Amino acid sequence: MVSGKNELDLASSKNEILLNPRWPKEDHEKLWSLATHVQDERHLQGHVWIATSGSTADSVAGTKLVALSKQALVNSAKSVNTHLQSTSQDVWTEVLPHFHVGGLGIEVRASLVNARVVPALKEQRWDVHHFYEVLNSEKCTLSALVPTQVYDLVTHSYKAPSSMRAIVVGGGVFEAELYKKARALGWPVLPSYGMTETASQIATASLLSLAQSEYPPIGLLSHAQVQKNAEGFLQVQASSLFTCYAQNTSEGRKSWDPKVNGWFTTEDQGELIDGALYIQGRSKDYVKIGGEGTNVARLRSVMENVALQMNASWPSQLAVLDMPSDRLGSEIHLVSQLSEADTEKVVQLFSEKVLPFEKVRKIHYVKEIPRSDLGKVLWGDLRKQL
After folding, report:
1. Which CATH number goes with the domain that contains 254?
2. The pTM is what?
């Protein structure tokens, strides 16, 4: 049962616009107007508008919106419920926002099986101590988290309550080292892959994977199909796919449907092997340094694992990014909230694990790395800050 103002009428033909309430009023109004205009223009009914979580827009008002039909949300929820063997006996704890598919997905899943949802944010913000208290007091059984939140649980050495039987982890790269540390503390974490455009995850590790400690394969869920195009990008066909995009641009309001014959081409490169998805990175993560190609996402993964081995809290205080270079075309920089001494330790170990041209060429020390509500680095804001 989903209580309070967050309840969504899945049977209604009414459209819903879910935006971050902390956005500036002026931007909020522009996005609201955009969604209203496009849904009238396209005669949409029974849809929910949600902002893309990975938006790289220059301003909030330019954020790309995704229209998801309520049926798409239901199709996703049914598939996830089946995968997690969710019933009315489950108690979901919700710390992902209602205006994000991660939070909304929990509410829809729970409503379909009449399970209970327990909010676990403190004053509408993530607080790991409050979350842990709620898990114990409410005997929660299921949840969905992003890797940053798993970091926090591991950092504080919290052991999983015996009531917890599965936690879907998505919304970012879930490193193998972090996975192992979380499993060592008893957390039943299931790596997943999904996006706003598919109304949540389309691939998730199985419950059986919790019987072993090795990083598990991420199996495709029953409602989705995946193939690879000629350029190596993953294409998705699913009963949970979005209807269209909408965005405020310099040329005015814009709406479009990028699907071709029902297939949506993602920005992710990867492949499907024996029913499991293997993600290799995004096109924008591939850069050339002095003529040598490298994947920045892989370098971030190396840095996170190195930092995690030294201190569980360090990965959230570091960010690797590529920056333009007159001489090399691109070069690798590190942004750090750590002390110079600790940063140098991490950089030294990182250097031992990458090729010479992939080493960090400059370190930027900052008080805070800009992040979204889900803990994702806001790369556009960070680049401007530097």
Report:
1. 3.40.50.12780
2. 0.82
Q: What gap in Å lies between CA 192 and CA 354, rounded to an integer?
A: 27
Strands (DSSP E) contained in 16-163 are 16-18, 47-51, 65-69, 91-94, 116-119, 142-145
Number of domains in the chain: 2
The per-residue pLDDT for range 301-355, each reduced to its tens digit, is 899 999 988 998 898 899 999 998 877 888 999 999 999 999 999 999 999 999 8
**pLDDT tens by residue, 285-302:** 778 887 777 888 889 989
**Residue 34 near residue 247, CB atoms below 8 Å:** yes
SS3 286: strand
User: What is d(CA 146, CA 62) in angstroms, rounded to the nearest whole number?
Assistant: 25
Do both 222 and 127 map to the same domain?
Answer: yes
DSSP letters for 188-230: -EEEEEEEGGGTEEEEE--GGGGGS-SPPPEEEPTTEEEEE-T
Please say whether the beta carbons of 302 and 288 come within 8 A: no
Could you give the dihedral angle defined by the CA atoms of residues 79, 82, 83 and 87, in that order, rounded to the nearest 10 degrees?
Answer: 130
Q: CA-CA distance, 168 to 252, in Å (whole number)? A: 38
